[in-house]
Specification:
The complex is a heterotrimer of chains A (287), B (373) and C (271). Chain A has 287 residues and is mainly α. Chain A contains 13 helices and 2 strands; from the N terminus they run H-E-E-H-H-H-H-H-H-H-H-H-H-H-H. The chains are: A mainly alpha (287), B alpha/beta (373), C mainly alpha (271).
Chain lengths: 287, 373, 271
């Protein structure tokens, strides 16, 4: 008992620098953000009398709800695309690569670590009016005029997000696929399951935790993205993140920006909870 | 990366662990003291003033005189729009010199973040065209806050080979249904909203009335489906015009000049309703850490050499009247400039300073319109 | 590894897909270096000619060097602090019975998932209310928060990968905790530390959103690039700079991941 107590104490004393930094860096700013969302911008300063006017405005004016919905839809699409495209990749490395597994993992995650800004920028070069895809298609003679919908569209944003977050999808799915006990698969084979049945009955259900974490790891951060839509989205690809950033810049209404940030966070939290409950429910039903 | 070499040696057993730990600690101390050392080093470099400006003004060509005196260029910080810059400085961001435009002068002064300019410390001040500093709200207690530097127009740059002009050049060009999806616009309300006012026939002096808001908003909403992209980044507009992705776009003088220099057939329109004209200049922060350098930055920007570069390469007007002497009248007219800037400024629509509340309201509304609401 | 016979079978379509996947993953990024050698200020096909001009021009631009130095300063400070704290946190998480471990780990990993813009504006609001001037220090603070989860996540497998009993043996032999840490733990987890330093440096070096909201008059390299995107004359040298940054990032991350590779395989296999 004594030993355990001192162990806990030591563990927390080791953790304390990190926890203190995180508290200062996360809890305090969030607290102030919440407080500020009840203020009003007056010229260059703030009126600190608490009011819910910002929240009222956010629910009354259609733009905020519509942009929030659009952001959730776009990052939802990006998440589904990424997970679907990356699952075979994770499966391949987990089951069909026997030597240099690590090399494959490193190769697949390498681009993720490089500058996000530059990757978005690179997609602009690829999707542009006389960018790589258009000039290639025109050279082959498939099209006569450049395809304009490639750039400045929601599709452009979704493609770029899917590319940027591939590593976040592959890693968790790979880990859960790699953990699957190979003898289960052999047992299924012995029982006469073909490859498809084997996959559906064993591999897929057992890798679901990885798929879930991949989904959340991509969906949550991408809903708040503002750089990709700013550079590639065009007028129809604007997301809620762009609006938040504008409140702290040209529009100069910080309390409104704080309100929108909090609404975004609450929406994400709610969706995450629903998602977790739903997947838990399904998993229980399966087992 | 000698740490990695050491790691190799450690693995091969060449390096004793104690020696290794020691060198690692030395490295740790070295790194821990780096910020300190570098802040000292920075104090030395900090004798250079900081110029907070749009990207593109941070080039050696404009700071010949400064470099001669200080041996190196000033430090630069860049912003996307001057409103963004003011917001940032209000947030506690301190620079020596910043770069607002005429419409912002009273609000910038009212923010209390700037100090009046002692014109006796500027050797080029006597050559500055007086109309450019006698701007609304610029003088408080007989002292100017803004030293004018560049002036020009916000108008339409269009492809002469791709845009089929019907009649005179006009703001209608950016509302032309024929070119739906092939028109571009600057994203900042400071340009676009005012151009919208000209198109909607709202007088600059009435821009703060509720009717004006409605009229301009209606014009902007009508234009929005035609616009391929709103951007603050002139490169995007210029590249789009060069490739034919766009046939016309709202730009400043420099876009047309740069495209012409590159052999792209474009014209910087003189719309019949008049272009939007503006004067931008330099203000000194009240807590400018390097006041002497601040004056050197301004003086260098006001010099004839900088002026020649501004006129020739960017197609902007300059504040120094002598800078125009190097050009003949024909060249200047071709650039949409003149030795008597008052002609140009009077021919166009000059922005009238507005309150901070107006700016916030206008920007919020314009953001909604751009997003399609 | 227990592997059934069928697993050894080669799956051609899947192999083809894997190769295609890697191509799509890398090709967009590799267009930046391609155009950085192109002799035209506009980024479009066909390529005009080969030139080093943009790289040479880059050397003459002093703001580029200043921004590079700023990024390095911020990156080094961030990686050292984040890794330093990360070592202790990873040890605490893996070595001790930790009541409330789940929530604590979840809390620390929060910056990995919360949208960057929310962190950025929250910190900006805090700093402005405290009246703290924006500077490279505020950027560094933001980066430390972003990088800590990466540092901890990199080192946890390292701690899990070696036997706790070695440390216990040292403690039993009467070594004090500090000495045990230096003599036993530190060398064992050293590859993890190195990997963490390299990875967090890269994350900080490339980070844009925090820098966007928190930087003062000294721009980091990504901020400088953002400011330069507006001017076409600068564009090709931006491509050149982007290519250099990409190359550096690739090398650092590859090294980091490679040094730490056995930690990963440990965890993967032990589970």
């Amino acid at each position: 008992m004594m030993l355990q107590k001192s162990e806990t104490l030591r563990a927390y004393s080791l953790l304390s620098p990190t926890l203190i930094i995180m508290a200062i860096g996360i809890l305090v700013p969030f607290g102030i953000l919440i407080v500020m969302s009840f203020w009003t911008q007056v010229g260059f300063g703030f009126d600190m009398t608490p009011t819910v006017a910002n929240y009222e405005m956010a629910t009354e004016r259609p733009i905020y709800g519509a942009l929030l919905k659009r952001s959730l839809w776009m990052s939802g699409m990006a998440t589904v695309t990424t997970v679907l495209l990356c699952y075979p990749m994770a499966y391949f490395v987990a089951f069909h690569v026997h030597r240099n597994k690590m090399l494959w993992i490193v190769l697949m995650t390498l681009p993720f670590w490089t500058s996000y800004l530059l990757r978005v920028f690179a997609w602009k070069v690829v999707l542009g009016y006389d960018g790589v895809i258009n000039s290639a298609l025109m050279n082959i003679g498939l099209i006569e005029k450049p395809l304009e919908f490639l750039l400045y569209s929601q599709a452009a944003v979704i493609i770029t997000l899917a590319h940027a977050w591939a590593a976040f999808a592959i890693l968790p799915m790979y880990v859960s696929l790699e953990k699957i006990d190979r003898s289960l698969l052999e047992a299924a084979t012995d029982l006469g399951d073909g490859p498809v049945m084997r996959f559906l009955r064993i591999t897929l259900p057992l890798s679901l935790p990885g798929v879930m974490s991949a989904t959340l790891l991509i969906f949550i951060p991408t809903t708040g993205d503002y750089i990709t839509p700013a550079l590639l989205g065009g007028p129809d690809g604007v997301m809620i993140g762009n609006l938040i950033q504008k409140q702290f810049g040209a529009v100069n209404n910080w309390p409104m920006g704080a309100t929108l940030a909090i609404i975004l966070m609450l929406s994400i939290a709610m969706i995450t909870l629903v998602f977790l409950f739903a997947t838990n429910f399904v998993r229980k039903r399966i087992s | 990366m000698d740490v990695i070499d050491q790691l190799g040696e450690l693995g091969e057993g060449k390096l004793s662990r104690r020696k290794f730990t020691k060198s690692l600690m030395a490295a740790g101390i070295g790194i821990a003291t780096t910020p300190l050392a570098s802040s000292l080093a920075q104090a030395a470099a900090d004798d250079q003033g900081t110029f907070f400006t749009w990207g593109g003004y941070d080039i050696p060509e404009l700071f010949g005189a400064y470099k001669e005196k200080h041996g190196e260029l000033p430090s630069f910080a860049t912003f996307g729009g001057s409103e963004e810059a003011l917001t940032k400085m209000r947030g506690g961001y301190v620079v020596d010199v910043s770069h607002p435009c005429n419409a912002g002068i009273p609000r910038w002064i009212a923010s209390g973040l700037f100090q009046p300019i002692d014109t006796s410390r500027l050797s080029n001040w006597s050559d500055v065209i007086p109309e450019l500093y006698n701007l609304q709200g610029n003088f408080v207690d007989g002292k100017p806050y803004l030293a004018p530097f560049d002036w020009g127009q916000t108008s339409i740059t269009y492809r002469t080979d791709l845009f089929e002009l019907e009649g005179e050049e006009s703001w209608d060009m950016l509302w032309d249904e024929r070119y739906k999806g092939r028109l571009g616009s600057l994203a900042s309300g400071g340009d676009a909203w005012w151009c919208g006012a000209i198109k909607a026939g709202v007088a600059m002096s009435d821009i703060d009335t509720p009717e004006a808001f409605e009229k301009i908003a209606a014009a902007m909403r009508a234009q929005r489906p035609l616009i391929r992209v709103y951007t603050d980044d002139t490169t995007t507009l210029e590249q789009a015009l060069a490739s034919g992705e766009m046939v016309a776009a709202m730009t400043w003088n420099s876009s047309a000049s740069l495209l012409k220099a590159d052999g792209v057939p474009v014209r910087f329109a003189t719309p019949k309703e008049g272009a939007l004209t503006w004067v931008c200049g330099l203000m000194i922060h009240k807590d400018a850490p390097n006041l002497d350098s601040a004056y050197d930055i301004i003086d260098s920007l006001l010099s004839v050499e900088s002026g020649k570069y501004m006129i020739n390469d960017y197609g902007y007007g300059h504040a120094n009247s002598k800078a125009f002497d190097a050009f003949d009248e024909e060249t200047l007219v071709g650039l949409g400039l003149s030795k008597t800037p008052t002609d140009i400024l009077a021919a166009g629509h000059f922005q009238i300073p507005q309150s901070q509340e107006w700016e916030t309201k206008m920007n919020a509304l314009f953001e909604e319109i751009k997003a399609g609401f | 590894m227990k592997s059934g016979t069928y697993i050894k079978q080669v799956n051609r379509p899947l192999q083809f897909y894997a190769v295609l996947f890697l191509i799509v993953l890398y090709v967009p990024v590799l267009f930046l270096p391609l155009f950085s050698f192109n002799d035209s200020i506009y980024v479009k096909f066909p390529l005009k000619g080969f030139t080093f001009q943009w790289y040479i021009e880059l050397l003459d631009r002093e703001p580029v060097w200043a921004a590079l130095m700023n990024s390095i300063k911020v990156g080094v400070t961030t990686s050292v602090i984040a890794t330093g704290f990360g070592v202790f946190a990873a040890k605490a998480i893996t070595r001790y019975s930790l009541p409330g471990r789940g929530p604590v780990v979840g809390f620390i990993m929060l910056p990995l998932v919360v949208p960057g813009i929310i962190f950025g504006v929250a910190l900006l609001v805090l700093l402005s209310q405290l009246g703290i001037r924006l500077s490279l220090y505020t950027v560094t603070a933001g980066h430390i928060i972003v990088c800590l989860p990466f540092a901890i996540a990199t080192m946890i497998p390292r701690f899990e990968g070696f036997d706790k009993s070695v440390e216990e043996a040292s403690a039993d032999l009467g070594e004090n905790a500090w000495w045990t840490f230096w003599r036993i733990t530190f060398p064992m987890v050293f590859p993890g530390i190195l990997a963490s330093l390299l990875l967090t440096f890269t994350v900080s070096f490339d980070e844009f959103i925090m820098a966007f909201f928190l930087s003062g008059s000294d721009a980091t390299l990504p901020m400088y690039i953002w400011g330069q995107l507006r001017f076409p004359q600068a564009f090709p040298s931006i491509l050149a700079m982007a290519s250099i940054i990409l190359a550096i990032s690739f090398i650092l991350v590859f090294l980091g991941q490679w040094i730490n590779r056995d930690a990963h395989s440990n965890t993967f296999e032990s589970k």
